[in-house]
Amino acid sequence: MSKYPEDEFDRTDGLGLPAGVHRTPRSAWSKTAPFLVVVVLCAALAVAAVYVLSRTPGSPLDQSSASPSASAPVEDPAAEDPAAQDPAAEDPVAEDPAAEDPAAEDPAADPETPAEPEAPVADTSVAVRVLNATGRSGAAAGAADTLSGAGWSDVSADNYTGDRLNASVVWYQSEDLADEAQAVADLLGIPASQVTLVPELRGPLSVILAG
């Protein structure tokens, strides 16, 4: 027996219609389905509106979507060009001219450097007289032996009879004997200041030992 009171839907009057249809209990799905449909439609409309606005030029959504590209960092041309970052990497290292020219490292190797003049060679065949004015016996003979040992071939020893001298000297008779006179003075340790030209000299060279 129905728990609902009888109404007009229960009276079919023999028309063959089902009775009490409105009283059939409804399921939970049939109750919530309309709400779910409304929610889905609203979500679809919201997505469509956002899409349309984002595609519309000048809209706030269009500006916000374009801002990432506008704020993208500007590329530095120097970062793509290694030579612009380091100018020294493009220029070769300057070469040292001295490294290419061996003559610049060693001045002695320069072929244009003038050689030192050779000492003049004395003529050891020139006659040399050694005179003793020291008062010591054998002084002239000892000096003569020194000259002979150095290659002088015409050397004689004797005593000096002239004026008194304060220092040993070497006298030579002519300008062409200056080299020989200096060579004799060097062998006997007589200073160059005591080598003197004496045109009146009896022989080519004379050594007078004094002191």
From TrEMBL:
Residues 1-25, 58-122 are annotated as: Disordered. It holds the Pfam family LytR_C. It comes from Sanguibacter biliveldensis. Keywords: Membrane, Transmembrane, Transmembrane helix. Gene3D superfamilies: 3.30.70.2390. The keyword Lipoprotein does not apply. Residues 64-87 have a biased composition (Low complexity). Residues 88-115 have a biased composition (Acidic residues). This is LytR C-terminal domain-containing protein. Residues 125-209 form the LytR/CpsA/Psr regulator C-terminal domain. The chain crosses the membrane at residues 33-53.
